[in-house]
Amino acid sequence: MVLEVAEAKLARTSAKRVFNRNVKKLVDSINSKDTAALIESRFKDLKQLWDDVQRKHEGYIESLENSKTTYDVEQEDGWIDEMDKVYDDVLRQKLAYFETVEEDQREIERQQEQISKEKEDQIRKKEGDKAIFRAEQARKVEEIAFRQEVENLEEALAAEIDKPNPAASMLETARTELKRQLEECKRVNGEYVLLLDAETAGYEIAWFTSLQKIYSQISKKIGDVIQRKSDTKGNAMRGSTMKLERMKLPQFSGNIRDYPRFRSDFEKQILPELESGKVAYVLKSCLEGEAFDAIYNLDDD
């Protein structure tokens, strides 16, 4: 029985020695900040060795009791308690290490996320800058086209403004085209402003307002010229009509003998006062009797 006790004690001592060696390895790995996988593996081995120490201790105590050997219970309990403290201390170091590793990993992930976000922001900003540049260039192109239209229209207006019979139709067509170009400027400016921040956009809205002002000014000039032509034409027609009213129109009833005199009077006195479009109408007004009946149903063309 004494031999069994000695063998059990030796086995316990051997288990303790192996356990302590592995404790040192694990602590060294933790202090060296080895990989988590290596530390986890060494702790797993240590856990098995700790279980072995406990079994060997229980075997030793059992052999003492079986041999009826008197032993110091407090001393033996102190031995296993000391070993338990060693294991608990290593366990705390291991847990603290993994908490640090996890925190470091979270910090790394946060940094990586921040870096990724910054890269995405840079990409978005770069793409946004490109979009702004393209929109700004498109706006410049349309502004150049608008100002060229204005220049052409001002030249045409200058050429027509002093004419007694300005080309109103041409001016109106040119004004319509300028209005279309203004709307195109409005469209591209809207697309450009949408890409800007609120403060910058506020300044850029004034760009279109300045073009609107230019259009309004030249549109008014065109309107004045067209109105002047209309007034001149109306005055001319009224003057011609009044002059004819003051004159006594020659009359022709259909008598062939009266025709030479009628024709002479009409060509000398009436025809010079008429516009080409009014000749047929006035001529019809000079006819009566059989002559009027003969052409009554004919148009004034």
Quickly describe the structure.
Helix content is 83%, strand content 0%.
Q: Give the biggest sheet.
A: none
Helix content bin: over 70%
CATH class annotation of the largest domain? Mainly Alpha
Gyration radius over CA: 57 Å
Given the C-alpha coordinates, what overall shape results? rod-shaped
How many structural domains does the protein architecture include?
A: 3
Low-confidence stretches are none
| Mean residue pLDDT | 84
The helix/strand series, from N terminus to C terminus, equals HHHHHHHH
Question: Can you name the CATH architecture of the largest domain?
Answer: Up-down Bundle
* Tally of strands: 0
Q: Provide the structure class.
A: mainly alpha
Percentage beta strand: under 5%
Annotation field: number of helices: 8
For the record, give the distance between the C-alpha atoms at the N and C termini, rounded to a whole number.
151 Å
Instruction: Using the coordinates shown, work out and report the CATH topology of the largest domain.
Output: Methane Monooxygenase Hydroxylase, Chain G, domain 1
Give a quick set of tags describing it.
301 residues; mainly alpha; Methane Monooxygenase Hydroxylase, Chain G, domain 1; 83% helix; 0% strand; rod-shaped
